[in-house]
Queue: 2 jobs
Job 1
Amino acid sequence: MLKWAIFFFLISLVAGILGFTNVASGAAAISKVLFFIALTLFLIVLVFGVLLGVLVF
């Protein structure tokens, strides 16, 4: 999921440089959402791993 966030961030940068502001803002919004979903999932796995004391991966 983090790969997709980076992918949409790069699309946002390229679209912003080329002047496609609507595409850039849409891709930036998608990138932010995917990043925060990935961050939330990471924190949930980290907390459960620490609480259970077992290697999760």
Job 2
Amino acid sequence: MTEEFIKFNNPWSSQKFSKNMLQDALVKHVLGLVNYRMADVGEVLDVNANLKNGDEQTWISAWATMANRLQERAVQYEQANKLVSAGSAYLRASTYWRVALMYFGDVADPRIRQYCRLSQSCYDKSMKLSGYPGKAIEIPYENTTLPGHYFQSPHANGKSPLLIVVPGRDT
């Protein structure tokens, strides 16, 4: 039996989700998180369908709406003792709160602080419910603290190397 194979001339990354280059790149970034269960294809496409090219406020509002919807769902799951579903919904909510932050032009916008805290809170709840070997920590810095997460391999014996990762503004 001889099969005919299609020659793929265009990789999926050549597909455009927006005429706006930044929005297109960010949607592709979020789709890249699907393998890690930090995003869901259907949810990302739902948000993308409601975006306007280059419109910052629509971006912020659409991602925050999805994040809020998932956070509320996570609370309901948690109250119903559906902890795996709750942990999963909290993780995706955390991602979407963070993604809403990626397109802010006004650094003084009070939603930045609010969404950062919501993203962190959802992430911490997800870690707690998922049994992932990590915990939230506070790192002393000048007259305050910085939030962080400490992950230790369950296979480490005694002293082990420490890796400090300082992510960029978008994370």
